[in-house]
Design goal:
This protein is α/β, with parallel strands linked by helices and 234 residues long. The chain has nine helices and ten strands. Helix 3 packs parallel to helix 5 and helix 5 packs parallel to helix 6. It binds adenosine-5'-diphosphate and magnesium ion (MG).
């Protein structure tokens, strides 16, 4: 199994508060989903922010495909192929679905651009093509968000709570989208719903108070007594 991303002894502090406490973990270049779970405040979003260059770590290093990316700015990291979505939807809400995808597409060199009609078809967005994002249901906005990320040609896709605030039907739809994507691209999924996590993941990483406290197959994590204690202790 080839390592695509390596986080090595990363520390991130906010003032005196240690949000990431010497974290090391690897993501492998395998199809499928690696879920990151853990209670609120565990440091999951901070970890994504550090990986994607939005935050600088106070110590430690991050390698992508063997290359040190620790001090690269966010746009360079996207160009290398690490693409993330945000917990809070960050689309251009006054633009249409097509226009949002187009903004992402035009940010890439001409030869790497995607056929947006194919992208819209792939995500079932054709019928929403010319609708302003603000007018779409929350669940469809989430799909647009993922489609925008896909348009940026990710080699590694990081999804920060894409199911947050959705109803059951919308969740099912996004889960299917994520499963499809994960057939071709390694996906890291931050998610609270353990039913979804155990259904969708090949690998689970458990964070707690800025540390990785367990990782392994869903079976291994399920049987891990430390994980049980934290989840029952909640
Ligand atoms: P999670 O995504 O696992 O819920 P976060 O990574 O968002 O957790 O936050 C981890 C901890 O770091 C929380 O206690 C949060 O309040 C704190 N934190 C996150 N971002 C900042 C920031 N920009 N400034 C200060 N504290 C922060
Ligand atoms: Mg978070």
């Amino acid at each position: 199994m080839e390592e695509i991303l390596r986080v090595e002894k990363v520390v991130k502090k906010f003032g005196e508060f240690v949000a990431l406490n010497n974290i090391s973990l690897s993501i492998y270049d395998q199809k499928g989903v690696t879920a990151i779970i853990g209670p609120n405040g565990a440091g999951k979003t901070t970890l994504i922010n550090v990986i994607t260059g939005r935050l600088r770590p106070d110590a430690g290093k991050i390698f992508f495909e063997g290359r040190d990316i620790t001090s690269l700015p966010p746009h360079k990291i996207v160009q290398l192929g690490i693409v993330r979505t945000f917990q809070v939807i960050n689309l251009f809400s006054e633009l249409t679905v097509y226009q949002n995808l187009n903004v992402a597409n035009l940010s890439k060199p001409r030869t790497l651009r995607k056929d947006l009609h194919e992208v819209m078809e792939l995500f079932g967005l054709d019928k929403y093509r010319d609708i302003e994002v603000a007018k779409l249901p929350h669940g469809i906005q989430r799909i647009v968000q993922i489609a925008v990320a896909f348009t940026l040609s990710p080699k590694l896709l990081l999804l920060d709570e894409p199911l947050a605030g959705l109803n059951i039907d919308e969740k099912t739809r996004i889960v299917n989208v994520v499963k499809d994507l994960a057939k071709n691209i390694p996906v890291v999924l931050i998610e609270h719903d353990l039913h979804v996590v155990f259904d969708i993941s090949n690998r689970i990483v458990v964070m707690h108070r800025g540390e990785v406290i367990a990782e392994g197959t869903p079976d291994e994590v399920y049987r891990n007594p430390v994980v049980k204690e934290i989840y029952i202790g909640l």
